[in-house]
Design a protein that fits this description.
Length: 385
């Protein structure tokens, strides 16, 4: 069996976690800030707040930006449901912007069209969440310029993208956003088993993120409503959550971050090899914008169904029957039953829907061998030709 993605855990990672198990701290200790520091340095950001998942990071990012009932949040339909659900958690209303046909990211041109209409109807978004699908950054400069004109805040969902670059600078530096969010799920570029991170350059937002990830509690005397009763004293000043990352997760993250560049470079090697092996097949290969250095979390092909005799489902099942555990990223969020109950319907976001009918994610992980990659390609070729 060849999975579509998997973690790479070496002895250094194991030793790092065992060291924590033998220490005095399993939950909140020195490893969490060490992991935050490693991510800050990699992204060239001022503040980083580690949490237990990227979903949690998205949630507290929305709260920190003041998203609430009556507000609108917009994102892409081509993403995991968490990119939209984070707004629902705050009582906001969700809408989507169709994708670019080449990058499969939220389309800046479609965003501008939608903003023009929304301004007329008084329904401009408070927050827009561009998702760097597969690791390739969105057209962030264009989105940022629109945010200045129409007054919305930006959360970059970079769950797929740590280690990537936009216009030569690291994704996560928040040059074009208020907050950037990363995921460290096992199939992502680096892992903490489960875990996420919110990074920002805004001190006030960082303070809020810190509060919301830990019950709304502070031990900072400057934020308290009265003098401290003693060294044990703390105050709850917001309604927060228990979204903290453990020392075990953070220790694994610190170790993994030492191989970040190596992991991304290996993914590019794999993608280049795929591109060469697959170029003659009736499929559309991933396209990379010249401003992008993708983290390449995913390698997604699109079947040219008018040139093959099999259906999308038949190709997908044929690969899995052969032990190639391909996947599909993603079912458009607006087609999920929960969202259709809100009034979303098929046909509203045609580019995302057409993409869904043709896309297959091929296996991509840093320990993938040339033999495994050749097996994937040979199996696909037999099904298509």
């Amino acid at each position: 069996m060849i999975p579509y993605g998997r973690q790479d855990i070496n002895q250094q990672d194991i030793n790092a976690v065992v060291e924590v198990l033998k220490s005095d701290f399993l939950t909140q200790g020195p490893k969490v800030p060490a992991f935050e520091q490693a991510v800050k340095e990699a992204c060239n950001a001022k503040y980083a707040l580690a949490v237990n998942s990227a979903t949690s990071a998205l949630h507290i990012a929305c709260i920190a930006l003041g998203l609430e009932k009556g507000d609108w949040i917009w994102t892409t339909p081509n993403t995991f449901v968490a990119s939209a659900n984070c707004g629902l958690y705050c009582g906001a209303q969700v809408d989507f912007v169709d994708i670019d046909s080449s990058t499969y990211n939220l389309c800046a041109k479609e965003l501008e069209k939608k903003l023009i209409d929304a301004e007329k109807s008084g329904k401009l978004p408070k927050v827009v969440v561009p998702v760097h699908f597969s690791g390739q950054p969105c057209d962030m400069e264009a989105i940022y310029n629109l945010s200045k004109k129409y007054g919305f805040k930006i959360i970059e969902d970079a769950s797929h993208a740590i280690g990537g670059k936009y216009k030569g600078e690291p994704i996560g530096n928040c040059r074009y956003s208020d907050i950037t969010v990363f995921s460290f799920h096992p199939v992502k570029i680096v892992t903490t088993a489960e875990g996420g991170m919110a990074v920002t350059n805004n001190a006030e937002l960082a303070e809020k993120l810190d509060l919301f990830r830990s019950h709304g509690i502070t031990r900072n005397s400057s934020l308290m409503t009265k003098p401290m009763d003693g060294p044990w004293y703390y105050e709850q000043i917001e309604l927060g959550f228990n979204y903290r990352m453990t020392e075990l997760q953070a220790a694994l993250g610190v170790s993994q971050m030492q191989r970040l560049d190596e992991y991304v470079a290996k993914r590019h090697e794999l993608a280049d090899h795929y591109n060469e092996l697959l170029k003659e097949l009736p499929i559309t290969l991933p396209w990379q914008h010249e401003d992008s250095y993708s983290g390449l979390h995913l390698y997604v092909i699109r079947l040219q169904l008018d040139k093959i005799s099999k259906t999308h489902l038949e190709v997908f099942n044929g690969m899995r029957d052969a032990g190639i555990l391909v996947n599909l990223h993603y079912i458009p969020v607006h087609l999920q039953p929960y969202y259709q109950e809100m009034g979303f319907n098929e046909g509203q976001f045609p580019e995302a829907e057409q993409y869904y009918k043709e896309a297959i994610s091929l296996p991509m992980f840093p320990t993938m061998t040339e033999e495994q990659q050749n097996q994937v390609v040979d199996t696909l070729r037999e099904l298509l030709v």
